[in-house]
Amino acid sequence: MNTYDIIIVGAGPGGSIAAKNAAEMGLKTVFFERGRKPGEKNSSGCGLGPRMWKDFEIMKELTPEKCPSMRAGAASRNYFVNKEDIVAGYIMARPTESVSYEPAKSWITMNVYRSEFDPWLAEFATDAGAELKTSTLIVDLIKENGKVCGVIDEKGEKYEASIVIGADGVISTVAMKSGLRTKWAQNQVTLVPQYDFQAPPEKIDDIMGDEALGVWWGATFPASYQVFFRDGFHQGLGNWMSWWDKNPLFYLNKVVNLKYYQRLLKILEAKPRELQAHLLPWLDYPYNTYTDGVILIGDAGGFPCPLEAEGIYPAMITGKISAQIAAEAIASGDVSKAVLHKFDEEWQKTSIGEEFEAGYELWNIWKALPFSPKETMSWFVPMIMEVLGGIFDWSQPHALRIRQIASHVKSYMPKATPFIMKYVIPLVAKTFEDDLDKLMDPKKIMTILPKLLELLPQKKRKRGGKEK
Amino acid sequence: MKIELENLTKRILGTGNFISVDRNKCNRCGRCLIICIMNLWRKKDDTIYIVDDYQSKCLECASCYQVCEAGAINFQYPVGGTGVVYEKG
């Protein structure tokens, strides 16, 4: 028997931060990785947010020498693709004036390949004294009187500890064997297929400039993300398990085969390099994250952001908190569920907790918009483009065009208004709480909105050409 | 543009069997046939099965396991240090 204070199953960002912090607090720590090295089983979750540089001092040590793929950029581009699979327009955006701190003012995301980032992070844990066991799959838990007190690997080797942290991702052995949950429901998990394309770094820099992220909003495919690294990029998309009516690659290939996209591949001199697929938990709120002697963090605990599924930062935050709570529980000699409840209290106080305060509304709007291409994006894209496309258009006198555009946008209202009522207003109301509850009362808006639309003038009085 | 999927993912041999079907539990809903990116599931007569050489093609995403509401598909990650290696993940 191998005895430790704390066992962490998984050496992704959550597991490594938990291991680092546990070891630094003097706990005898071991963490397990089923790959030959951390990160080689992970795909995507490749965007590091600026919050990480604020909350984790070690991030300042991430350099291209340690992580050659790293590429940060200030710009993101939203492509709008219509029912005919034509890129009807796009919006490029940079950090706005209201963004309040560095590095968020300078870039929106730092993109890294996990095969480089995860080992880099794990080294902080091993440097702090945690023991890393690679090529080791944990298949079961040891229980005594029904309470978890260790883990068993595939070779039957046993490891004992006061606390086991489940950092083992979406199909979490720790979660399921501890009885915290069975597998996720179909609407709690997304399937994400993804291509990696290689492209010369200078081509990426010349053509994309400081764009770090593209999102392809489609009327015939779920929103597809494009993430740029130093010498390549990912193109992937996802949706809940129950959504797919065809092989998921059918939809991803639709993006890749857009004429616009093919042109982009050509000028970037890009070639497919790797095919990846993974499941990603996407919950409106994490639940059942702890029990006697067990805490779940990161994907295993269902912590990815409920809006766009950022996973690394929530994993690191919950990893850090889990180590703190575990250390306190071990010191007190009580690792029961009643004590580990503090884990939930603590993460709820962080920015992750704040994110999940509007979790249901965020989850819901994502489901209704990018994850419902045929139902929503099919009118959303032409509606947005009606407005944007009208900015430069001399097909008619401009005032007439404005009236035509307004009238056309009005034709989308039977679809747009229920959508706004059902998904947008609850989110706005939740975000601003009581202040807007009164102002945004759906009944009030419904009485005003049609009248406002009616007020749009149909004809314009003639001005020039005074009679002599 | 047709992307050739063969050889787009690196693998280390020796995974052993890590996916199996319990024919008694399977209700033949066919979700696994649709969801599998590598198209590794087959239906013949009234039986659903995974192709013999799945170990050399599977992406280990566990979608088949996750999508199976009948609980008929057993999935356990491959032996430590084997299976899919994502170098650019």
3D structure, described in words:
The complex is a heterodimer of chains A (468) and B (89). Chain A is globular, with a radius of gyration of 25 Å. Chain A has 18 helices and 21 strands. Among the domains of chain A are: 2-69 and 113-182 and 286-356, FAD/NAD(P)-binding domain (3-Layer(bba) Sandwich), CATH 3.50.50.60; 362-452, no CATH class. Chain A has helices spanning 13-24, 51-55, 114-127, 173-177, 201-208, 248-256, 259-268, 298-301, 312-332, 337-340, 342-348, 351-357, 359-368, 373-389, 398-411, 413-432, 434-439, 442-455, and strands at residues 2-3, 6-9, 29-32, 47-48, 71-73, 75-81, 87-93, 109-111, 131-133, 138-144, 147-153, 158-160, 163-166, 189-198, 211-218, 224-229, 232-237, 239-240, 271-281, 290-291, 294-296. In chain A, 44% of the residues are buried. Chain A starts with a strand and ends in a 13-residue tail after the last helix. Chain B has 89 residues and is of the alpha+beta class. Chain B has one domain (5-86): Alpha-Beta Plaits. Chain B contains two helices and six strands. Chain B has helices spanning 31-35, 63-67; strands at residues 10-12, 19-21, 41-44, 47-50, 73-75, 83-85. A two-stranded antiparallel sheet of chain B has the order 1-6. In chain B, a hairpin with a 2-residue loop joins strand 3 (41-44) and strand 4 (47-50). The two termini of chain B are 22 Å apart. In chain B, 40% of the residues are buried. The model of chain B has no long low-confidence stretch (mean pLDDT 96). Chains A and B meet through strand 14, helix 6 and strand 19 of A and helix 2 and strand 6 of B.
